[in-house]
Amino acid sequence: MSEEQILNEIEQNKEDYIKFLQKMIQAESYNPPGNEKNVAIVIEEFLKDSGLKIEIYSFGDNRANLIAYLNDNFNGRNLLYNGHMDVVPPGNEEDWKFPPLSGIIKGGKKNKKIFGRGAVDMKSGLSAMVISLKILKKLGLKLSGNLILNAVADEETGGKLGAKWSLENLLKSIKCDFTVVGEMTGMQPIGKGISVGEKGHLHLKVITNGIMGHSMMPSMAKNSINMMSEIILNLDKMEKYMPKIEPPISYERYKEIFSNLFPSKEQFERIFNEQEVLQFIFDSMTQFSKSFTLINGGFKENVIPDRCEAIIDFRLLPGQEVDMILDSLKKVITKDLGYEVKNEPRGNPREIFVYIEKYRYSEPSYLENWENSQYLKDFEEIFVGIFGGKPAYILGIGTADSRYFRNSNYCPQTIIFGPGEAFSAHAIDESIKIQDFIDVIKVYTLFAYNFLK
């Protein structure tokens, strides 16, 4: 009966929930600079008459983290819902069909969407979590545990000021048994997924230092751009120096998981072979990757440049560490290319060397033994009841705040699940299907009820 109450409550009030999501999208929280407090105020306003405990922790210039509780008792089973309030900037707004802060609704009756920056990443997921907390409080259902909402800043620039700060300050005295991070997990044409881990993200800055000279006598100089070109062309040789790390979920295991979502394995294989994007996703989930993404060298047309800088973007499998990457890259540069790697970015004008600097890092994360998690089985049961089919279990190919909860051992049983398609995140004309948003509210609320009752 209580589950029926929850579903009826959602259906009766879904127009109010849609308006709340529109307000969330309309609250400007581009990061940089942040402005997450704009969103925190919208959440506080939505929850203000619910009887929930809500606290906003302001910092910096119009930035904030927020925490809210179902009740004041943390001695039983605790469920944590986490979502970030910041969004990436929209880019050139003239390229958008609708203003990125409009939250406008478009589409037919069965395919209505809300448009705006953050609609997918991840104001719809965060809004659904806020709504589920409000529903459980409003209905006054008998629960023995607690639902905690943690809305955070800074995810789009690393999460240290948001999820990490919240762990060290707001959550440190609360033991959590299970955590859901509400990032989008839609995977067209497959359906919805549940992420049980994510790849690591490493940026290395590489500087090649050559010898400046006149371009009319290039042999008397050492061209730093040519040096960088050698590194680019030989980057794949890193693999021979790296320890062999298997992906936590193999390519063939993914095929088994995904084929179970189709009426037959033959149908899955046909779609898999037709949809090249699925093959790219499988590759990304199972392989270490490396890409040069920025490069800058030279300052005048007729001068051989003595300095070139580049950024290499690495995506790491769980088990791969920064030192493995650094060591293998250094071996390519020293053994295969014959250049010295120095610990300082500057040398004398006639010195030829390469300098490598760790620029940014988010470590990989993975829920070990996820297939035997009873909490996850319970979540899947609710998922199937709402969406009608099983989820695809995946290793996320981007980074998320979930790594802080797993890797700190605060809450190893952390998953990612939320509304929206991954391909729409950070894109022009970002949008969320309204029905997907409503269905995820149902999953969040029903799971929280069953988890805490």
Description:
This protein is an alpha/beta fold and 453 residues long. The protein has 2 domains: 2-197 and 365-452, Zn peptidases (Aminopeptidase, 3-Layer(aba) Sandwich), CATH 3.40.630; 200-245 and 288-362, Alpha-Beta Plaits. The protein is built from 12 helices and 20 strands. It has helices at 2-26, 37-47, 119-139, 160-169, 224-234, 251-259, 265-274, 276-286, 322-336, 374-387, 402-407, 434-452, and strands spanning 53-59, 63-69, 78-84, 105-106, 113-115, 146-152, 178-181, 186-187, 191-198, 200-209, 213-214, 289-297, 303-304, 307-316, 341-342, 353-362, 365-366, 392-396, 414-416, 431-433. Strands 1-2-6-3-7-19 form a 6-stranded mixed sheet, sandwiched between helices. Strands 12-14-10-16-15 form a 5-stranded mixed sheet. Strand 8 and strand 9 (191-198) form a beta hairpin. Helix 3 packs across helix 12. It is globular and about 85 Å long. The protein starts with a helix and ends with a helix. The mean pLDDT is 96.
